[in-house]
Structures are given as structure tokens and as C-alpha cells.
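Quick note —
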Amino acid sequence: MFKAWMPVRKILHFTDVKMISYLHVRHHLAGLQPPAVCRSSSSVKQAPLLTAAPVRALIDDQISITARFLPPSSPVTVCTRMHSEDGDLWEAFAHYNTDTSGTVNLTSDPSAGGSYLGCEPMGLFWGLQPAPGGREGLRLRKRNVQTPYVVRISLLEGHVSPCMRDISELAAVTTERWYMAPGVRRSDIRQNGVVGSLFLPPGPGPYPALLDLWGMGGGLVEYRSALLASRGYASLSVAYIGHKDLPPPQNRLNVGDEYFKAAFKLLQDHCEVDADRIGIFGLSFGVFLSLRIATQLGLNPSCLILVNGPVGSTVALPDMEDHFLTFEKSQEYWTYDKQGNVIFKDVSLPSNIAPERKAKVENINCPVMYIVGEDDLSSSSKENADVIEETLRSAGKSQLFTRLSYPGAGHLIEPPYSPNARVSFWSIKPEKLMTVWGGHPAPHAAAQEDAWKKVLKFMESHLRSVTGVR
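Predicted structure written out below.
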């Protein structure tokens, strides 16, 4: 797949990262260096070598990072740095000790300190945090999925922090992390009132497909859809609040059932989508929307993938009453931590949601996977999962329900190796408001990796396999 990623300028490529001395390359190729290998030069001994393979990969691919030709049993630091699309610097670092051959392999060797401890092959990616002195309340989210994150990995002498002065850099390598694989096609959707982005996989269709729904943070979030298309699924990411092309005002959800029905139908009617193999992927408030689409709009999705969200809404959708939904109307259920950050968890407690504002879960006729972050502080995920499971059991449909539950994971369970934001800005205007999502770095990262593998397997069973449960 990734052979299509060829750089514009002439560079040297290696299918296997081979130990070729810098001087030899310089002699034969007029100073050109391969992008996956960067070494310091030395006329006396082999200089330290840092490799990353593959150097270009999808965001959910694990890469192997190795440092060689170092003094045996010596301390070194490996760090990552990258700039977000807003220009903010993010970084992570870990302390290692070389083995008797002067080698460190992040796939098998434990970190002794830094952003994480223990053996974490991808810790330098999920451990990324805003650099000291940067802006507060940041959350890393890719807006332009047609460009990669460019991450510089550095090998430093000793056990140090990247922010220290006079650090000796021994070697470095630059990697690219993509959501959108070569051949994936993206198109803007402004059709039948629907505002979204459609991603189609490479190769001929028809493809199984997913309707991709996010939470009340608003806007059009594309990166999960881009990654799903990179894994072979057509995916339509839909905006329903907080977008300039939706009916104003932007802080209100004033689209309802017909809007979401039109989005689902748009996938069904697309010439490159298999109309009988369409699922729905919802996170946060997108869980309620997914359940409502599946149970009350006369549609027949093939499966639901639900992440940390409610079975209903504390305030009415436009289709429920002649009434606009604004998230601020649920303030009676807001709580705050000691720093004054808002916690939305009680908003979605099933006991706080009126029966008429809950999805008719008993009408579900397709397999459901519900993912619970046990440290979710933005949604009462466990309680909502309990309601779905018990309702389906009472309806004689317990075989349709699968629960994944992760201790230490927060609300924002996203594709693997994504940094978690435990706290970030919810809004800037009319006043600054920070919210607590929850999640602790290492268990949250483990949850994302495990859940994504199981989600892909679940989709394989129920969207690709003609024998999937219906």
C-alpha cells in the first residue's frame, strides 16, 4: 500500500533498514541520506545510528525504533517532537539503558523514566503532550487528513529532558504518520442538506460502509473516517452542530431525524457502497444518535459501534418537540473539579434522562459493540452500557450485545497511538471553559490499541462477512 508514498525530491530508500555507513552513502550518492536513517559522522568509529521502520505508515500502524552503535550499558534518551497544525509543539521522551552490545530496541526494552515506564513500543507517540511553556487546554486532533503528522525522533546522550539546554543529539530520524492511505478518495458532501465528508477506499467497490458520528464538540471531524477508508470501508463523517454550512446558530443542534436519515440514505444510494452492509460508528453524543437512527427511523444498519455515550438526551431534539437543543441547557447536572473544570458525567446518567428522550433500545436488530472507558468523566458510560445490555436481554436479544470495558481509560477512546487529553478546552466564547475527559496515559493507550483491533474484527464479521449476525 505504502509504495505509493514517494517523496518529490530524489532520496534513497531501503526496504529493509540496513546498516550502511554514512561515509559510504556520501561517497556514492553525493551526500544524500535515506529518510529513515540519520547518523552522526565519524572517521574513527561507527557513529550512533537511529532507525524507524516503517518511516511512513498509517496512524494505527506500530513502528520499530532502534538505536545502535552506542557505548554498552550506557544511559540514553529517545524523544519525539512534532508541531500540530496550529503550530503548537508536542513532545515525549523516555530514558533507556543500552545493552552490552550498545543497542536499544523500543519494541522490547523498558523505559526507566520520562513520559512512560516499562516496555511501550509506541509510547513516544501516545505519550506526546504539549511542550512545557505551551498553551493550556490543548487536544491533538488532525484537521487536514491529506497531510501527515511529521514526527522527529531524536537520540540524546544521557538521561535528560528535551527542554534542557546544551543537549548532545547523537542521531535523529523523521517519520510520517498518516490517517489517509494512498488511493483513498475524499469528497465534500453538501447534498440533501447533509454536511459531511465522504471517504472511499482504494480499488473497486462496492464497499461496506460506516456512518461516522462524533459528539457535541461540533464541527466536521474527518480523521476516523479517513482511517476507516484506509482499512477498506467507505465512511461518511457528518457534522450536525457547530459548522458554518449548517443552519444557524452554530451552538444549537437544530437538525433532527430527517437529517440523519438523509445521511444514511446518501450512503445507501452511493454507487460504490454496498447498501446492505452499512454500520454506524458513534462516540459520545453520537452514541445516542446512532441508537436513534437504528431504532426509530425505519433504517436497518448492519451493526453499531458505540464509544462512551448515552442512550438518550437530557434535552429534546427538534424532532421530539418544537424545541432546540443546546448543550448548556443541561447545566443542572454539571459538576466541577477543584480546578474549576467542568465534569459532564452526570448529564448522561440514565436516571437523569426522561423515558421519552431515550432511544428505543429494545428495537435494535443488529449486533452492537459498546466500548466503556471506566475512567470516563464526560459520560456515564458504564451505566448506559448496563441499560443497553439489560434492555436487550429482556427483549431476548442478548446475543447482539458485546461490551469492551477498560480500567483507567477515559472518554476519548480514539484510534491507537493517539495522545489522550485528560483535560482540554470545551469552549472559548462566551467564556473559557475546560472539561475533564478522564483517562490515564498508559491504560488509556492500551485501551485504544486493544479496542481498535477488536473494532476492526467486529466490522470484518458484520460488514464484510455475508454470514454476519442480523
